[in-house]
Amino acid sequence: MVNKTIDKKQMILELLYRHGGGTISGVKISEATGISRVAVWKHIAALKQSGFAIDSGPNGYALPHPEDLLLPFCFEPSVREQIHHFQEVETTMDIAKILAREGTPHLSCVVAEHQTKGRGRLNREWVSDKGGLWFTLILKPLEPPPLVYIYNFAASLSLSRVLKKLFDLDISVKWPNDLLLEGKKLSGMLSEMETRGDMVQFLVIGIGINVNNDPSNKEFKAVSLKNILKKKVSRKQILTAFLLEFKNRIQTINPTKIIAQWKEQTSTLGSRVRVETFDSFHEGTAVDVDETGALIIEDDQQNRKKIIYGDCFHT
Ligand code: BTN
Asked: Does position 30 have pLDDT exceeding 60, yes or no?
């Protein structure tokens, strides 16, 4: 069971948030929350301990960077209900699955500041330092299992469009669902599904976006928006725009249209690629993505191969 009770700590954070970066006295917080000043002090200490940047001074407390917060109350009403925020988790994938099993609705979003066991595709580790945008969508599609792949394509298409629109950057999609910026990885997606019989119980799509973190410290071929734009950008703005765009895009699912639009955004088609799976690899030129989302590659003898999963590298 995931604990989501709104407690006094959340009330304190909301008060500080609504005050912008300004200072609020312990007395005012104590009056507004109905707890003693000592209890306020203890809650603030616990919040700091769990990673919230709160300034304490003789006049009270302040949030120096309210724009960094991703708590539900920070979002506009149209997306607020979707947000489930955690300061630190092992992985948002597992939290999303627990919440999905508990009945959390379609299009909910589990977001965490930091993941201690973030996972990537092919069971790789996904480094999830603070400053990145790490979230998992809970989807409860009505389509049967073989058709839900289209949600991944809808997600990468939506994200690439949103980031292009917000930051005017030359972002491309790499098959199946990575986003590249200047040839380096800006974002990755991982999807996992639970089925019963021939029905999808839920699909969770985990999305990691390098926003204000510095992935190049650990991974030469990764890049963040901050690295390129030379300034911090709003994770809340990105998440809000993505959730609205994605919701809109999946209102009526049209696989042919989604794949066609996805192809307009990809840099994989026409590239020489190496696709790694758990136990093998394939090399050739990427010539097409069919309507099931499979990558078609052609080797030097013009033999074509259809690849349904794997990690793709442009060589
Ligand atoms: C990949 O490119 O290998 C996929 C990376 C997916 C990372 C995201 S971050 C949020 C969610 N939680 C995880 O543990 N993984 C996904």
From this structure: yes
Do 157 and 174 contact (CB within 8 A), yes or no?
A: no
Handedness of CA 144, 147, 152, 155 (dihedral sign): negative
**How far is ligand 1, taken at its centre, from the CA of residue 192, in Å?**
11
Tell me if 145 CB under 6 Å of ligand 1.
no
Stretch 173-184: mean pLDDT, rounded? 97
> pTM higher than 0.85, yes or no?
yes
Q: Is the distance from the beta carbon of residue 124 to the nearest atom of ligand 1 less than 6 Å?
A: yes
Phi, psi (deg, nearest 5) at residue 164: -65, -45
What separation in Å is there between the alpha carbon of 280 and the centre of ligand 1?
Answer: 22
CATH topology of domain 272-314: SH3 type barrels. (2.30.30)
Question: What's the angle, vertex CA 126, arms to CA 124 and CA 129, rounded to 5?
Answer: 160
Cβ of 268 below 6 Å from ligand 1: no
The predicted structure's pLDDT at residue 290: 97
Strand 178-181 to 171-174 pairing: antiparallel
Sequence ranges of the domains in the chain: 4-67, 72-265, 272-314
| Average confidence (pLDDT) over 249-274 | 97
Question: What mean pLDDT is predicted for residues 58-72?
Answer: 95
User: What per-residue string of b and e applies to 243-275 under the rule 16 or more CB within 10 Å gives b?
Assistant: bebbeebbeebebeebbebbbebbbbbebebeb
As beta bridge partners, residue 24 has: 61
Domain 4-67 is found in CATH 3.30.470.10: no
Ligand 1 atom closest to Cα of residue 112: 10
How far is Cα 189 from Cα 297, in angstroms, rounded to an integer?
A: 22
Architecture of domain 72-265: 2-Layer Sandwich (3.30)
pLDDT given for residue 218 in this prediction:
76
- Compute, in angstroms, the gap from residue 269 CA to the centroid of ligand 1: 24
Asked if residue 126 has its Cβ within 6 Å of ligand 1, the reply is yes
Percentage of residues of the chain with pLDDT beyond 90: 95
pLDDT on residue 279: 87
